[in-house]
Amino acid sequence: MYDSLALLLHRLVLFSDLSALKSAWPWQRARERAAPTPPPPPSFPAAHALPLCRGDMLEVPRTLFVHFGIYLGDDSVAHLVPDILPVLTGERALTAVTNARLVLGCMCRRASVRVDSVADFAYGATVRVNAMDHRLSDARAMEGEEVARRAERCVGHVTYSLLWNNCEHFVTSCRYGTPVSLQTDQFCSGVKAVVRDQRSVLLSLLLGLISIIYFGLVPATTLPTILISFTLWMAG
Q1: Rounded to the nearest 5°, which phi and psi values hold at 76?
Q2: What residue ranges are annotated as transmembrane (predicted)?
């Protein structure tokens, strides 16, 4: 067994040495210099040189969701952001919202409609303009000036709800007159599918039994197992 491992290690070392020598050959270096260098990724102004108009709805992809805003002109965007700091300090400075402030804002259901530059709003992501107009066939967009004015009147502190009053609700209310969130609808549909799947009941029972075996038969493990499983069974 040790002889086989030694032979394998020897071959790996020999292969790495040959690869290093191959890359050091003159013809290989000349070929690499002759190969075209891929262009660098475009900077923000080049990637987002869009003909924006006042009242346009902007959206940028984030890690788990899509963020929305209303273009106000002069390189400024109004958008709703969960933030706990203005509630605690009354600060209205347009500083970057950290992840901790955003999470605490979501937990405390506090947010603010801010005005930031397009670059700060996009945060390096690709900006899409008025893409919601094609997804909401029944909604009719208002005039751009009216959309921008409605957004400007909302600037300040607002109550935040991940499902009922998020950034998508804000922009659709300004542009179409009715708050709508397709992301919320998709999330609720997913939760509904999970709840209606009877395998969720079996999974909750299995996890409950594992917790009971690990932590013991105590109310902290028994009651959640019974309540969660019963709720999933009735809701399904």
Answers
A1: -125, 145
A2: 202-235
Question: Is 132 within 8 Å of 185 (Cβ atoms)?
Answer: no
Residues 6 or more apart whose CB falls under 8 angstroms from that of 215 comprise 221
Rounded to whole angstroms, how far apart are CA atoms 203 and 197? 10
Residue 222: is it exposed, middle or buried by C-beta count within 10 angstroms (0-12/13-18/19+)? middle
Tokens 């032979």 belong to which residue? 7
Task: Say how far apart CA 146 and CA 35 lie, in whole Å.
Answer: 53
**Coil/strand/helix, residue 69:** strand
Element (H, E) at 97: none
The answer to whether the CB of 56 falls within 8 A of the CB of 71 is yes
Counting Cα atoms < 13 Å in the Cβ hemisphere of 5 gives 2
* Domain ranges (residues) in the chain: 48-181, 197-235
Between the two ends of the chain, the Cα-to-Cα distance in Å is 56
pLDDT tens-place string over residues 1-12: 444 434 444 444
In CATH, what class is 48-181?
Answer: alpha beta
Q: Supply the pTM of this predicted model.
A: 0.64
Q: In the annotation, is 188 catalytic?
A: no
Catalytic-role residue among 106, 108, 167, 188: 167
Average pLDDT score, the chain: 75
